[in-house]
Amino acid sequence: MPEDPASQAAAPTAGRAAVGWRWMGSGEPLFLRVADQIEGYIKGNGLSPGDRLPGERELCELLGVSRASVREALRSLQTRGVVGVQHGKGVFVASPAEGERAMQRFARLREVGMEELFAMREVLEVPAAGWAATAASDEQLQELVITFDRLEQAVLARLPPAELQAMDAQLHLQIAEFANNRFLAMTQTVLQEMLARSMDTTLAIAGRPARSVREHADIIEALLARDAQRARTAARRHIHSARRAALRRVASGRAQAAPLITPGPGNQ
Fold this sequence. Notes:
Elements: H1 5-8, H2 30-44, H3 56-63, H4 67-79, E1 83-86, E2 90-93, H5 96-107, H6 114-135, H7 138-156, H8 161-178, H9 182-198, H10 208-224, H11 228-251
Antiparallel strand pairs: 1-2
Helix pairs in contact: 2-4, 3-4, 4-9, 6-8, 6-9, 6-10, 6-11, 7-8, 7-10, 8-9, 10-11
């Protein structure tokens, strides 16, 4: 019998006060919507290549979002060549040539198969969990707990799979960020953007949301315990479980076997 999310979601949060939460209504991850808003700000204010964007704090106030969401959005825009980051100086609008080169690199990632995708997830996310266990501050770990609580409550409330996936993506991005490796965080942002825009979520599979919550609970518990080895083991177990769910979905005919990344206009 399929698992019932309302009865099976396991929480490492027992004994803590319930954390209030709200969802912003779209199944698209918040960082992608924030990235679109920042692009709109650039165009709406007539910013040209080389012009400096407002700082993170000001963007947070302008857009009404957290600093983490702004950072993730800026990494996404940097990957796509919309902005460039000069450390110690700020974020600047990139030149068209820089943007074109970045988009050409990004376009080459469109034909990625399922096995490649999950292999890359393991390469990135397993060490990220281990590093976050030792590098994350106590405040950052509490941010992860809050994000996990939101995901757990969303599963219990039976929110649509796309919304669950957006919350799941936020949790994975935070772990990568708190691993304290900027290159890892940027690469993880690319991976999550590819997943968000192109892949059917495994969280639409009966029983998968509750199982995923339990797997994330194991990761969070290991991080709170500052146990790097346990965090890596839990992250690897979660990725393998998601991979098995995706392969079962393909085998049952509920998803197309290839490719995961849908070619965009001009790439078909």
